[in-house]
């Protein structure tokens, strides 16, 4: 089943069950506390927290998401993209646990001929929160799941809140058993790597008012919410790879053409060599993320969103280099990604001149410094090894960044390949100093003199905000 068809079926399923279909919001998060939209619920936060009345009692969407948190997993697991699409259904004080479970079960196991996804019910497992007997009972009664396929997990996996005082509650996740060739029996409780029991859908039951929220697992329940909400997220690419009978999300119809083109350019056969395969999957993933981010108006830069886009594009370019392709690759790969995604996002086609100009210019800028930067890197590694301290200094990483445009994770990746580490904290401190200098300069330009106190004040005010914004993305899992 094509990805576009799964998307269509999802929306249709919920539309038929009284949900308003809401178009995807931008990848640039509508919520100011996040750089990117990391989940389907992000555009609905005002309704879920009760800050604004919801204009509809039920909604459904297929939301474009970016999670930089998962960048290290890309290509190594079967299931993590930096860009992916989250199918969701939402209830704002309308149906609750039973409704959410019923709707999900009907779609997952409903016959293909009737608009369902046709998964074999015998291969479905679910998890519920430790004390959530209500959800466990509903799964047993509504779906007829045997009790041994309803497992209980703690707060780390099966509890959701925003990280601040406010609404929260247990969640319940749906897993698909890919079979014994992918790992031992025992269900998601045992398979912590998630290779055999693949998490496809998270149902969040916003049920309680929480206070004293100190961490994911440390908070206090004040009482029940007057209006309970449902927020769910199903990974479109994960469902697609299962239904398309391929091994992972980089091999689905919306991603694989880029992977194949990259393999052709490099003259390698996908599936022959693990290391090359991971690189090809990274390329396919990052090229698509770059396309979607530029499509939503992000441009490469040294801060915030722009920096993340830069990292993705440059990492893709460097991966192509490592695969043996020295010529510019984005002009070969980006149009392929556009063609694969254009069916669902026609604006990528109409806007492609702009999008491609931004991407190609970024590759050119990186290519101009790649050779000299790599030479500097090699020298630094040689010196570090000779000195018996196999670590690159913060200054060296900073100089690679500042002079040669090597994003920190490109440097980290190159260092790891050479078996050396990098003083990341030192690098960040230097980045911060540079930022502060730039701010003080800008201020000096405005006032005509350098005001030392203002510099201090700026430091206090803006301090590590940019890196905080970056680390916000590291807490986006739920
Ligand atoms: P995982 O444990 O596999 O990392 P998660 O628990 O972090 O997933 P949720 O935050 O529960 O994921 O998001 C809801 C759904 O979105 C997941 O069940 C999954 O299907 C999908 N999803 C999450 N992260 C990704 C990703 N990086 N790439 C593709 N799909 C994803
Ligand atoms: Mg999970
Ligand atoms: Mg989850
Ligand atoms: Mg995750």
Automatic annotation (TrEMBL):
EC number: 6.1.1.7
Occurrences of domain Alanyl-transfer RNA synthetases family profile (ranges): 1-478
Catalytic activity: tRNA(Ala) + L-alanine + ATP = L-alanyl-tRNA(Ala) + AMP + diphosphate
Keyword Coiled coil attached: yes
Top-level enzyme category: ligase
Function in brief: Catalyzes the attachment of alanine to tRNA(Ala) in a two-step reaction: alanine is first activated by ATP to form Ala-AMP and then transferred to the acceptor end of tRNA(Ala). Also edits incorrectly charged Ser-tRNA(Ala) and Gly-tRNA(Ala) via its editing domain.
Name of the protein in its database record: Alanine--tRNA ligase
Residues represented out of the complete protein: 1 to 478 of 896
